[in-house]
Amino acid sequence: xxxxxxxxxxxxxxxxxxxxMLILEGIATGxxxxxxxxxxxxxxxxxxxxxxxxxxxxxxxxxxxxxxFVVLIIIGFMVAWLLKVEPLISxxxxxxxxxxxxxxxxxxxxxxxxxxxxxxxxxxxGGLSLGREGPSIQLGAMAGKGISKxxxxxxxxxxxxxxxxxxxxxxxxxxxxxxxxxxxxxEIHKNFSVSVLISVMCASVTGxxxxxxxxxxxxxxHFVVEETLPLSYYGMILLLGMLCGLGGVLYNKATMKVQAxxxxxNLSGYGVMIPLLIAGCLAYCLPEVLGSGxxxxxxxxxxxxxxxxxxxxxxxxxxxxxxxxxxxGAPGGIFFPLLVLGSFVGAIFGSIAIQMFGFPERFLTNFIxxxxxxxxxAIVRAPITGIILxxxxxxxxxxxxxxxxxxxxAYLCASLxxxxxxxxxxxxxxLIKNGVNPDAFGGEKHIVQCVVQLGSPIxxxxxxxxxxxxxxxxxxxxxxxxxxxxxxSTMLHTGDTLIALLNDDDAPYIQHELExxxxxxxx
Length: 523
Description:
The protein has helices spanning 8-13, 15-60, 63-85, 94-101, 109-125, 133-150, 155-174, 177-189, 194-215, 234-265, 273-285, 294-301, 308-327, 335-357, 364-380, 383-394, 400-416, 422-433, 507-518; strands at residues 445-451, 472-479, 482-484, 497-503. By secondary structure, the chain is mainly alpha-helical.
């Protein structure tokens, strides 16, 4: 029987060529997603330069501040209109991509691309404390979805292209290809199969290649690590990790509280006016905290000697302004601002260690870099990605061991305090807003997806005849874009996407066992 061209069966029956198709699709997606992310990064760069010019003019003549408030109000109305036209551009965009991977959200890729770029640019022009990395991930994923829709790819390939686009977006935004791969697989796809890894790696490297051709080969951060931290100082590393863990819990809980407060006020998109007006005040009295935080990072990397009180003031103001900016629902991410906050935690911690405990001053940069990784691990709860990300962004691997220790300690502290990762919390709230109740299954559960690959043990078997892992329930099957409610007699075929409900406590082990059932090596 001849299978239809473009169908799941047609794709998977050409197994000898499938791995090469994945490579080509990954490169194509990385090329387009990388170009979009680079253009977005350039536009935001111009916006931040514009903010610097505006704050300079305001300092010279206070009357310019009145005109600037008028501009900020106009920006607020424009962003509010965009949020009404396309609500899914709100926030970083990473929860939207995760929801799409779970088939709970269906984004119009062309609308999201246009509205997200425009909304993110407007917010950057207003000086809001938002990052480019989350939006770059969403934009990259939407580029992948666009390719899928244009070339009529099946659902399985569409999810793969979404993951490839997300990896390329992060890679181009940070010049960090390995972190792009790890984040896309660890946070977005939640699957580490060989076929997916190859395709995502190709996309991420392509996105990074495009970015480096535009922005150069220098790492995103210009910190100079003179010497790795001696082993005798590792007690301080443990203390820093615990501090980052506590700070991460505070950040996550405060973010959700502020977001809930804005939703309670029910400002219908006009909530973005609040951080914009605050940005106008900060443009006069504390312009350093405006924007994503590049200026603050440069202040630390250039070796400015700040007193601890000044560092604390900048940290507290940046923390509060970031919460309000993101909580308002403005299009923009938290990636870079949280790294900035982590860097200042490290600077304060290192300054105290130097001034009060006699630590050598040359190790201040080490504490700054370690705290960034710890903050990322505690807030996002992806320690491997955090370690790789900071190592790539700082351009050195000499401090990999202390980075790993701080990240793991921060991760454990946040986990022991039972604080949900930020993107899981945001996804939970987004799904409820879109009419999906993640708690409808009762208890703490975890939803995963696995594709039945060619030659896998369960291929062409009835569900009732498969020995499934304990505490695993198959709740849906997607076949050639259509959903099938599973029964005991339902036959499983190559290309089926199984959606399974797992007990959260045992989810990693159960998912591993489920993937063993569905996976067959291409070698």
